[in-house]
């Protein structure tokens, strides 16, 4: 993932903390899909509807970019929401790309199977 100058370390640390917090909160090996959003966000609502059939394959973490503690994400994504990260890595923005999501979920699921074998 490319990091931009400025809030680079803050963004990296924040993303990693979100990932670890959700990973430790979850007793499963499900990946964490982070949705960067704000209220209102009709495209985010549409995206969440499209994701419902996949809800048993990931933990959805929503990050409201308008909150003061998320100001670095606001500066980065204010014109791009919804934005999705999968396990802390950028995945997609603006609209849900089901084929991209499916491909990445399958890859992660295969990695878990390989480790368990």
From TrEMBL:
InterPro entries for the chain? Glutaredoxin-like, Glutaredoxin-like_YDR286C, Thioredoxin-like_sf
Looking at the UniProt entry, the stretches that span the membrane are none
Any idea which UniProt keywords this protein has?
Electron transport, Transport
A Pfam family found in this protein is: Glrx-like
Family, as annotated = Belongs to the glutaredoxin family.
The protein here is known as: Glutaredoxin-like protein
Lineage start: Eukaryota, Metazoa, Chordata, Craniata, Vertebrata
The encoding gene: C5orf63
């Amino acid at each position: 993932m490319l990091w931009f100058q400025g809030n680079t370390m803050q963004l990296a640390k924040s993303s990693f903390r979100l990932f670890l917090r959700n990973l430790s909160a979850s007793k499963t090996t499900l990946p964490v899909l982070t949705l960067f959003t704000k209220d209102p966000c009709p495209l985010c609502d549409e995206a969440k509807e499209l994701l419902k059939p996949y809800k048993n394959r990931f933990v959805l973490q929503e990050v409201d970019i308008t909150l003061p503690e998320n100001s670095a994400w606001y500066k980065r994504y204010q014109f791009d929401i919804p934005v999705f990260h999968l396990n802390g890595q950028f995945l997609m923005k603006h609209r849900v790309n089901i084929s991209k999501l499916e491909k990445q979920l399958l890859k992660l699921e295969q990695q878990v199977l390989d480790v368990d074998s």
